[in-house]
Amino acid sequence: MTYRANTDRYDAMTYRRCGVSGLKLPLISLGLWQNFGATTPEDRQRELVLHAVDHGITHFDLANRYGPPEGAAEEFFGRLLRRELAVYRDELIITSKAGYRMWPGPYGEWGSRKHILASLDASLRRLNTDYVDIFYSHRDDPDTPLAETIGALKTAVDSGRALYAGISSYRAPRIVEAAGIAREMGFSLLVHQPSYSMLNRWVEEGEPSALGASAEMGMGNVVFSPLAQGMLTEKYLDGIPQDSRAARSTTLPTEFLSQRNLTHVRALADIAQQRGQSLAQMAIAWVLRDERVTSALVGASSTAQLDDSLGALRNLAFSAEELSRIDNHAVDAGINIWARR
Predict the structure, then answer these.
(1) Distance (Å, rounded) from C-alpha 233 to C-alpha 96?
(2) Given this model, what pLDDT does residue 30 score?
(3) Are strands 162-168 and 191-193 parallel, antiparallel or unpaired?
(4) What are phi and psi of 262, to 5 degrees?
């Protein structure tokens, strides 16, 4: 049966302008970092993406490495785009990134012009599309001149292979430097994509902070891992389920689930219950409380999980008293694995 998107799909979603650009993104976007690859049945992947489209999610975040194996998430999305979503292409924001290791040798990773543009071309082939809407430098390369990396992003935009360019997991001084270089070259960076959650607040630190630097440079922020790789859900309140990320030792090492961290998580869960929300819903609403955050990227292993995340939109407001109570437990948990990459 041919897929047809819900005609009322945009009614329940709220969209926020990305920085000073003309582009609006949904407050909740779907990331394909987890649960999209050879280890997940393709019919489940299809169900998740189409369910997202039916609920007004227009923004789908990918990268060259997402799988497993590397590239599998883009290959899946490319098949779905060709078979069922081609007619909706102009309604979708599809992103990709380059910077982490994809192939052997000196050009398989980091921020050289060689890697950035070769990776983009490979992603376009996997995605079955002529362009991505946003293309990111996935991580700051300390050994490549920043002007070379930003120049490669400009080439991507100028050539029509990307409509916008962004950066991911950059510190505040490098955000300012990257945006300044882009302006000197005659274009603008659209967005910064950092990790951010109640247990990982590094983007608030410093003066300016990463959030502040992005805003000052006219950029939006699309934040990933607002649920702290699953810690900010009810999943780990009573132990480690066998089918969880922590049990598989993937992106949530068991040492993150320390008694100190879990004490804070349980207290946050109590606050969420008093607000009439799940912990995940409160965690998403909390990152969106700041207007400098354009969208929260969530993952999902089922449509029920995605629906729970979407439920955050029903209660985005916080009282000063609630924020004060949350601050007592929204403390650094040592889970920013991207800072060590």
Answers:
(1) 27
(2) 98
(3) parallel
(4) -65, -30
For the chain, list the strands marked E by DSSP.
15-17, 24-26, 28-31, 59-61, 93-98, 132-137, 162-168, 191-193, 220-224, 293-298
Instruction: Give the DSSP H/E element, type plus range, for residue 76.
Output: helix 72-80
Domain count, the chain: 1
Is the pTM for the entire model greater than 0.85? Answer: yes
Cα(290)–Cα(334) distance, integer angstroms: 22
Question: Which residues touch 69 (CB under 8 Å, ≥6 apart)?
Answer: 37, 38
Give CA–CA dist 182/283, Å, rounded.
Answer: 33
The tokens describing 319, both together, are 């009282």
Q: Tell me the residue length of the chain.
A: 341
- Measured between its terminal Cα atoms, the distance across the chain in Å is 44
- CA neighbor of 88 nearest in space, from 133, 126, 123, 121: 133
Phi, psi of 168, deg, nearest 5: -135, 135
97 vs 242: which has the higher pLDDT: 97
Give the CATH number, domain containing residue 25: 3.20.20.100
What single DSSP character describes residue 85? Answer: I
Q: What is the mean pLDDT of residues 180-189?
A: 98
Closest by Cα among 136, 214, 145 to 176: 214
Give domain status of residue 328, yes or no. no
CA proximity to 297, closest of 62, 100, 126:
62
239 domain-assigned: no
